[in-house]
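User: I'm putting together notes for a lab meeting next week and I want to include a structural view of one of the chains we've been expressing. I don't have a solved structure, so I'd like a prediction I can at least talk through. The sequence is below, exactly as it appears in our construct file.
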Amino acid sequence: MRIATGGIIHETSTCVNTETTLNDFEHDRGIIRGDAILERFRGANAPTGGFIAAAEQYGFELVPLLRASAFPGGLIRRADYEVMKMELIERLKAAGPVDGVLLDLHGAMVVDGIDDGDGDVIAAVRDVVGPHVPIGVPQDLHGNHSKWRVEVADAIVGYDTFPHIDMAERGQEAGEIVVRTIRGEIRPTMAIRQLPMFWSTRCQITAQPPMTEVIQRLHDMERREGVVSMTVATGFPWADVLEVGSSVIAVTNNDRALAQQLANELGDWIWDHRERWYSPPLTVRDALADGKRIGRYPIILADHADNTGGGSPGDSTEVLRTFLEMGLTDALALYMVDPEVAKQAHAAGVGSRISIRLGGKSSPVQGAPIEGEAEVIALSEGAFAYDGPMFAGLTGSMGTSAWVKIEGVSVVVVCSREQPFDQAFARSLGIDCAKMRYICVKSAAHFRAAFEPIAGSIYNVDAAGIHTHDFSKIPHTKRTRRIFPVEIPPGS
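Assistant: Thanks for the context. Below is the predicted structure for the 492-residue chain, given as structure tokens.
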């Protein structure tokens, strides 16, 4: 049994004014070819790691093609996307006959001129392998799933966790489904229910209410007779595509009517309880005030409107400015993306004091730069190894980086737009996050997997930023349906 694997992975924000190019895919986990994929991802918490585990469990030959991944950012340049897709397809053709395909895709990829980049990849693979070779696709919780995607794949298996600590598990599940299909044990049949709803990030944390109830219902439904898999996707609002929004996908064993019934059942329940998935904005100062009232430290503020993990620039300044205005000490900001200041700190050296203009350089929406004097505490070239639950087993690089201190506030200044998935890079600079009283993270939720064990309290704050969670301010031009909580307001 031979099963091919590959993919082009990107979460695309159309709100930022930068392009994602072929160069952005060339990094530590970027474009990997052939057997190097197996070497790189064996044991890693990524869908491809799950594919490898499935191959070992079920004894099939995993045929590695091309895996291309870029950090979330702006619209992908069409010509560069076509280069990657062409290589993936040519490698698939050169591999000879395969019994199945496992694709590692995100679910919210947008290419210039192609709203559903993931669907385009699946369709291109389908054109090569034909209608009878099963294609399994694990996808992120934040996919904007289209009807076309559901038509051209055999089984879409969404992550069950946010933060995403089950990526390898879902990859292994997709591998099992494809194997069982090849053996003739099942015939996966899918249906989708799209929901006109934007889901607030604060209400998506799968280990906490109210999202725990959604996942429990999903798992209960998966235990019903004839059900292969159930997926809930909360969507990615910062993509200007026609089918933006939340959705439910059901996979059954050769029963399309049942699949649609199940997707509608869970979708209707989610829609009927839509007020529970909405959270009103919370200001930085209100969050700090509440954290101080509770008195449990560190107080962690998730600056989710500048979440680099969704493609935001990572240089918004409101939270840092508030820390300084309030005279906070033992405060830390992870991370501020500002190559100019990072290189300035390296040129000056550890122990020096430098005059800086920090952050606020990508867009006026991100706030004005912080101007003042900073002390250079530590320097790094940026290489480190993840040790938290989410990307354990993988390495990363923040590029030229520095730990600087402005008054009582520490800031880790980096060149690469990467959210703090764990504390490993901070530790590499000599920072003990647990000893801080106030921490700002440029992240929406993924930080929780590694930071919750040390947190006193956590707040998602609505500071000024391109990835605002005031959904009415997101520039959508393509969607045609009224959506909650924009045209369909809370309480209606």
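A couple of points you could mention at the meeting. The longest helix spans residues 78-94. The chain has two domains: 2-277, 284-468.

User: Perfect, that's what I needed.
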